[in-house]
């Protein structure tokens, strides 16, 4: 009888301390698993009762996270798919590729924050998307792997640990960002545009002269842009009938009404700034009438109490400087989520409320 001896690392998959399965890796990085065993996360017992967890793509990445001080981490057992499926999500019984999620449901169903630290290559990003689809995007966060050089970034947790050390890996996890949700944005997604607006590099920020100097102090013609900032018409008069909602007391609905251009939005923006200053509340904004950069200007002026531009309404007050602008941008990013309809579909009340729910969960 011939006995074959092979040197390999054994990764034991356990639940409540009991061995469920085992995965092996030899010195050539070849993997194999025991057959006919239940699929579960590697490191499952480490997330029992955790409110925040990290999901990585391989057992070595799980161990790398432990070196960085994160024991609340698990690895998927089967690696990543080549691409995101374009099919509807299957039922839990038919979801064979991701059966490990449903086998570990009791461990993850009450988790409030899930950091997806999958590999930075296309399959790794596809895995993150498939996990987010099943776990709920509203409680998922994603990492951004640091740059290795000008052309490429580090691929995974183990690479960051090996080349940059545990402190760098901790920083990656601590700086994880909310997983993208269609229609939900943050002001920092628009920082470049806000900077261009402040430095007046977009063109016609203050409007175009009418040709009458006496009228210019009261009115300038503004170009109306499409979503790609291409002018398609010039409006002399633009009347907007609006209904603005603002939650002043938790659980209550406040409706502010008035004739067009009576200052409803300006008043509500000022109210939000006051509430943030006094009690630290954060807000989700759904303003269909404002471009993001214009809404940012209005909020920053109320926060900093200086004009965004050197303009007549600022009277003798000096324009906010670049340092104040940067501080204000950080405040915008920390305080507000943006609900925006960026495609040709008309928004609905249910669409707004669903994104508002996601925004609240992301702020917790």
UniProtKB/TrEMBL annotation:
UniProt-listed InterPro entries: P-loop_NTPase (IPR027417), TOPRIM_DnaG/twinkle (IPR034154), TOPRIM_dom (IPR006171), Twinkle-like (IPR027032)
Q: Which SMART domains match?
A: TOPRIM
Pfam families, alphabetically?
Answer: Toprim_4 (PF13662)
| Domain spans labelled Toprim | 51-140
Q: What is this protein called?
A: Twinkleprotein
């Amino acid at each position: 009888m011939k006995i074959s001896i092979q040197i390999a690392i054994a990764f034991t998959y356990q639940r409540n301390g009991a061995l469920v399965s085992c995965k092996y890796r030899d010195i050539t990085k070849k993997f194999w698993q025991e057959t006919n065993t239940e699929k579960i996360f590697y490191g499952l017992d480490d997330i029992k009762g955790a409110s925040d967890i990290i999901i990585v793509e391989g057992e070595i990445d799980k161990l790398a996270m432990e070196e960085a001080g994160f024991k609340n981490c698990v690895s998927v057992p089967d690696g990543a798919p080549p691409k995101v499926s374009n099919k509807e999500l299957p039922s839990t019984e038919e979801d064979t590729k991701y059966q490990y999620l449903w086998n570990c449901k009791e461990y993850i169903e009450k988790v409030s924050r899930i950091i997806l630290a999958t590999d930075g290559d296309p399959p790794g990003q596809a895995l993150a998307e498939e996990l987010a689809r099943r776990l709920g995007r509203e409680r998922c966060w994603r990492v951004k792997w640091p740059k290795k050089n000008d052309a490429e970034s580090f691929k995974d947790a183990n690479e960051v640990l090996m080349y940059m050390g545990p402190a760098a890996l901790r920083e990656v996890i601590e700086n994880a960002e909310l997983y993208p949700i269609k229609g939900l944005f943050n002001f920092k997604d628009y920082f470049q545009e806000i900077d261009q607006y402040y430095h007046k590099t977009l063109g016609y920020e203050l409007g175009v002269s009418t040709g009458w100097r006496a009228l210019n102090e009261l009115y300038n013609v503004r170009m109306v842009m499409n979503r790609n900032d291409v002018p398609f018409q010039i409006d002399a008069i633009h009347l907007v009938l609006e209904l603005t909602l603002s939650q002043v007391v938790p659980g209550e609905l406040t409706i502010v009404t008035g004739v067009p251009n009576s200052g409803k939005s300006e008043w509500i923006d000022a109210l939000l700034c006051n509430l943030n200053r006094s009690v630290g509340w954060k807000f989700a904004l759904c303003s269909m009438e404002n471009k993001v950069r214009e809404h940012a200007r209005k909020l920053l002026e109320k926060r900093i109490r200086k004009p965004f531009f050197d303009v007549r309404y600022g009277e003798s007050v000096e324009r906010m400087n670049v340092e104040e602008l940067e501080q204000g941008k950080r405040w915008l990013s920390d305080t507000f989520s943006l609900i925006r309809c960026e495609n040709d579909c008309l928004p609905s009340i249910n669409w707004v409320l669903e994104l508002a729910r996601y925004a609240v969960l992301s702020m917790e």
